[in-house]
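Protein: EB domain-containing protein
Species: Parasteatoda tepidariorum
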Amino acid sequence: MLSTENATKCCIFILICVFASAHSYAVNIRDVNQGGNLVMEPEEAIVYPGRNITFTCTYHSNLTFIWDFTSMIQNYNFVEGAYLSSKDHVLYYSKLNIYSTTRLMSGEITCSIAEDKAKAVAFLIVNGVRNGGSCQTSSDCVTDKSVCQNGLCECPLNHVRLHVKDRGYDICREMIYSLYDPCEYDEQCAHLVDSRSVCKSVCVCAPWARDIRGRCVLISEIAYNRSQEMYRVGLIAVTCIIILIVAVSLWVTLRKSCQDQNLDGQRRSITQADFDFPTRFSIDLTSDKPPSYDDILVKEEEEENKIANPPNFKDALKHCMTAKRLLRQVSAPAGVVLPTDSPILKTESKINKEV
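Structure follows.
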């Protein structure tokens, strides 16, 4: 039987063999893809039309490099040389310089060593020009949905050029104008609709904002606006209450003043009835105090003057003349008519004229 120590040694030996086999397999796979020690860089090149690109093929022996490409590459040249690697090994290289690339140059590029049967493969991808770049046909434009207009790649009508963060280059997308319009990228909503909107198949407000009448408003702004609105409403309510109180106070004051004026007028219009004796006088009931003694004496004197004053002289003379004429007519004999042109009648007529 094997001891524990021997069993451990056997396991370690088996593991070493397995790792060695795996390393050998990986080296063989790399040799198949890159031709053993033949290496080409870059393995894949993505460029825009009009750019220059260089592929470098490196080998450890000074042998003949053979380049092959199936694409329509026309403007190119080769540069060969050698350099000292970091491990003090001499490496030989051949460079393929391609100038003014076009979309038609995209394809596979092969570097091989005829003597060693080594082979390395790379890919050239010419993607097209961005918006604003020169073009001949719309196929030269790489920007999504862009077209060649007047020799330049531009977005078509009713489309807008957007820079998409996830892609790293510009795209053309249809114009959108409001929330809940269909979209593909956040940039569409942020640039065309609202800076606080995002794309969820349609443009909607971001989680930190709310839709207020078709506009995305920050939640913090909504809270602030509500507090301001409540403050304004409260201020308006207090102002209205103050105005109402002042108006009611003025109305009550004016009403009381009008009532007092009407009552004073009524009191002034009421006077005490005159007395039946010669010294009657009236007393103002609305006065705050009774008439003075002097006022009463003045009233009495006025009444006495009215009684003591004699009648008008002309009236008295007229009456006397009339009475004298009647007396003479009565004392005259029966059937005798006194003349009318007597001095008495003339005097009477004269008096009448004067009157």
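Remarks: Residues 52 and 99 are 5 Å apart (CA to CA).
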